[in-house]
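In the design runs reported in the main text, the only information available to the sequence generator was the tokenized backbone. The following block is the verbatim input for one such run; it is reproduced so that readers can re-run the procedure and compare outputs position by position.
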């Protein structure tokens, strides 16, 4: 009897010990799990900017190899392998071609850059030493000897094992323009002239500038989108075998326009395809390039259109379309930015997208800095962009407590159109932004109880989306992400999204 009792007691003690060990093991596993899956409390940390915005120190022509993110205007970018290649209009702040010739600087046309991370850019040089003769002759014959002094808005697309570089030549304020194509077996050349894609004269409705080319994901057809305030934007079919017009003399069909071509500037179409959403997104630029330049977007089910905006309007109906993704803005501790448009879209190949565009440093608005912003898509399928430039900040997940604190918020609204313009552009000497032309930031505090100023805020940790009702208007599904605060040189939390009118709302945590 005693022996049996001892055995049972021993067995019971062993079972308890094993259960205790298993419990400790489960606690340990749970600790490891939550250490990986529960976000730590976020702290704003110091982080220097990768480069200064003011590049006065390197404006001399001899410093061209230092122009990695400087003198960037009308960028277009393509990823080839692990490298991003960028092509842009040859616009140079403090340009001095005589000085360049004296110093034997190999100045040319179409700037080329490359990067492995979208942050650090190497200035490769120029694609061409001269403007192609046929383009110069066409423009100057049509414009009484004027124009054809530069190459604008290049765009590169890959075809089989070759690279096709589209470019345009024009005369300012006229639609006497020419889009041509170059080809190479390398993304950086040498480039061989392949001919004219489309050219326009003063009797034409359209203007042959700002090409963007895309292949239809379903049938393999090629389409080029181009144009400006002269008649609007057009889509024309190309022959994939040659990269030139599918039909000789064809100039395409209208896809977008505005009401008053004398002042309502519209240009710079850029089209991308999103395979998961099965939509084509057409990004366009409105208004004068030195001041209130801003980016809009529309979508279509096929690359030739029709394209529709936030309210379902066909964008060739002369409505001022929304969403508005970027416009002049100023956060605290910075002079601000004008000319934030003429964008190039970048498919990173891993499901992520980025937007490249110029930013003109205020107050002078002549220095042209490269801005790269990550693109995100809302639940309703609209692209929105980060309020800050991309610096490679690692992705992370936040919890509600991370968002408690002080936020700087910007509402991107419709810029006013009250100036006299020439060909849709600001008159010389009037390039400074007026106060009502730039989106200013305001400060809103998020407290632990869910109050945001006079309103409320709420964070969906699963979706990483934010809802704010701070001004009597509820703004839902703002996307929250980690990012770099350029103005304060810190790593912080950002949000971006659209309000109920289709205007961008940007925020960054500052305390």
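Verbatim output:
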């Amino acid at each position: 009897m005693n022996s049996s009792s001892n055995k049972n007691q021993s067995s019971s003690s062993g079972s308890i010990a094993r259960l205790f060990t298993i419990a400790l093991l489960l606690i340990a596993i749970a600790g490891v799990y939550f250490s990986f899956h529960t976000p730590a409390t976020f702290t704003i940390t110091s982080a220097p900017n990768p480069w200064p915005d003011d590049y006065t120190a390197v404006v001399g022509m001899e410093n061209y190899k230092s122009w990695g993110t400087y003198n960037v205007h009308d960028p277009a970018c393509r990823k080839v392998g692990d490298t991003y290649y960028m092509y842009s209009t040859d616009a140079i702040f403090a340009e001095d071609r005589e000085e360049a010739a004296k110093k034997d600087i190999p100045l040319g046309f179409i700037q080329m850059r490359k990067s492995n991370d979208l942050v650090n850019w190497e200035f490769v040089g120029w694609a061409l030493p001269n403007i192609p003769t046929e383009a110069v002759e066409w423009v100057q014959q049509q414009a009484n000897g004027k124009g054809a002094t530069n190459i604008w808005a290049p765009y590169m697309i890959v075809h089989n094992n070759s690279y096709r570089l589209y470019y345009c030549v024009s005369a300012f304020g006229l639609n006497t323009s020419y889009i041509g194509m170059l080809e190479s077996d390398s993304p950086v050349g040498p480039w061989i002239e392949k001919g004219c894609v489309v050219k326009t004269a003063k009797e034409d409705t359209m203007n042959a500038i700002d090409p963007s080319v895309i292949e239809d994901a379903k049938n393999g057809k090629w389409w080029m989108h181009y144009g400006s305030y002269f008649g609007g934007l057009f889509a024309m079919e190309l022959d994939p075998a040659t990269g030139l017009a599918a039909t000789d003399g064809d100039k395409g069909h209208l896809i977008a326009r505005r009401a008053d071509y004398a002042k309502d500037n519209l240009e710079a179409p850029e089209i991308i395809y999103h395979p998961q959403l099965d939509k084509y997104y057409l990004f366009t630029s409105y208004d004068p390039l030195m001041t209130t330049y801003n980016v809009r977007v529309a979508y279509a089910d096929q690359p030739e259109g029709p394209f529709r905006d936030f309210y379902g309007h066909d964008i060739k109906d002369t409505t001022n379309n929304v969403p508005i993704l970027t416009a002049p803005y100023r956060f605290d501790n910075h002079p601000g930015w004008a000319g934030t448009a003429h964008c190039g879209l970048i498919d990173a190949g891993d499901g992520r997208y980025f937007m490249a565009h110029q930013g003109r440093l205020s107050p002078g608005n002549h220095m042209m800095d490269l801005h790269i912003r990550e693109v995100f898509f809302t639940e309703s399928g609209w692209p929105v962009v980060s309020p800050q430039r991309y610096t490679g900040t690692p992705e992370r997940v936040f919890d509600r407590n991370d968002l408690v604190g002080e936020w700087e918020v910007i509402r991107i609204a419709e810029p006013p159109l009250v100036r006299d313009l020439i060909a849709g552009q600001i008159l010389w000497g009037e390039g400074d932004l007026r106060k009502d032309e730039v989106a200013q930031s305001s400060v809103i505090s998020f407290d632990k109880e869910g109050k945001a100023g006079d309103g409320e805020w709420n964070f969906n940790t699963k979706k990483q989306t934010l809802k704010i009702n701070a001004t009597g208007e509820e703004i839902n599904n703002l996307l929250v992400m980690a990012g770099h605060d350029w103005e304060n040189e810190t790593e912080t939390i950002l949000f971006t999204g659209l309000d109920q009118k289709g205007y961008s709302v940007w925020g960054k945590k500052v305390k």
